[in-house]
Sequence to fold (288 residues):
Amino acid sequence: MNIAIFGGSFDPPHIGHEEIIKQAIVKLDIEVLFVVPTFLNPFKDQFFAPAKKRLEWVEKLLLSYPKAKLITYEVDEQRSVPSIETIKYIKQNYDLNEIYLIIGADNVKSLPKWNSYKELKKLVHFVVATRDGLNIPSHLQKLQIDVNISSTDLRAAIKREFLPSILADEIINYYTRKPMSNTIETTINLLDEKKAENIQVFDMRDKDYIVDDVILATTLNSKHGMSLADYIKKELKKSGEKILEIEQSDEWTVIDLGDMLIHLMSPEYRAKYNLEEFLSKRVDKEEY
Fold:
């Protein structure tokens, strides 16, 4: 089987990504196009939309392209995964002949810096998606993509005309929300990924309380609670959030972000102190 692999952050997906998908399916001699959202680009130190949200967007985008298949491997790993590792994972799971690896024109110069580049170029046939008139060496195969837009540009100024129609409303709503709304969703996704239970969000704005929002989550045990706190701290810092203070114990950890408090509690302490009843007297809760 001949396949192509198209990886990216998709933060957010845009019409340039969609055009690459269309062109790859039509122009390359392949049976399947594997689209692989990254958990974190190896050359970046943060993402903006959480991995779970980006997966949902790409999955929805691919509904219109039966020859395209979503690969969740890198997001499932919850770490920065080099392309060589993803290639080997796919080779282990599929009987392959030719592998085309689609890269952006802006990545050509940095290719020799990629992890295990010498091994990688023996495994794949590179295909370059053109962009912004960037020069591409003649020996490399090209996909002519006449869309000059980047996810970075879109995050700075969201424009509907550069978004896939099937995703436009969702993406606009997501990136134009208040920053704290994004932080809440990111935190919920992080807690869910790490198996926290009974996640609840309380909107305390316009209430007589010390913060705007409170998140409660139950930990499995003290070790899980400590691990959750470290993970939340690390990942929120990647997305630019400033953590003011962390009060931590085996049974109960409080993470203070100024406008939001995150409570990570053991089942016993959650039942004993019943914070949700205290907060619910002031506002209706949301459950996740």
User: Anything to note?
Assistant: The chain is about 35% helix and 20% strand.
